[in-house]
């Protein structure tokens, strides 16, 4: 029996879906996902549409798959073609051009094509359960679109919230209060190890923290360009299940955009309800982004990384994501990969895959 997953937020949730699927099932899997990467990867704000790619494989009238041969059309960037090559699942592009209505048509087409009995929405962190007014909320639109698109698919839809609070948007206690006593799975080191190699290049922070928690990491991690502190606890490797109806009853923006027919319309409704959308943030950040300050790994860059590491440790930070280091040091995606390799090779005692400890672990 084929499994159908809907990655609520994009590439990071798609990777999480692959990890959770491998941990819980041996059946074939399809993962429907937005092509929505951080500016470190894709300099264009917002999600990519089918028009932004070459080499998509058509599966149905409204459905296209991302293959290892798919390529984003420059200047767009995407992690999805490489992810398609490295996970044991088929990635399907969610194109939000026509709003929740268009996404629903895509998912209905896909569900009918696969003849699946149910679908699961996967969200790492829990912002899929946002009311819309949380102080730490950063990305309401993507999750609202994914939930809304799953309404009225004609099959039961569950919502899996993995790693409560790990995206730094809604605190873990609030997420746990919303999911209730509904734990569906717990990830372990073997589950994290299965796709450990993907984190060598994939920039996801929340899913990286989920994998680290499955390996036993506990403490405070610093993430994103703003340096949000996120706590890894004994709840962090867990996934909790709700019904779609339960999730929609919590997520006000998702209910409000159910009948939207364009991305702009969905964004405007979300902006009105939440005061912003994540595309607004990306637009603003794209205009102020500075060129990378380093193009190679130098002694100066190593000193700066060590200095920031010591400063973070003095502030009570136990772990840093590599994306956080990249943001602090002004690195391109390529140089971030080189720095990661350099740090692991020179000071392996700080590495708890796939994140970096501010103090030696052994």
TrEMBL record:
It comes from the Bacteria. Pfam families: DUF1152. InterPro entries: DUF1152 (IPR010581). This is DUF1152 domain-containing protein. It comes from Thermomonospora echinospora.
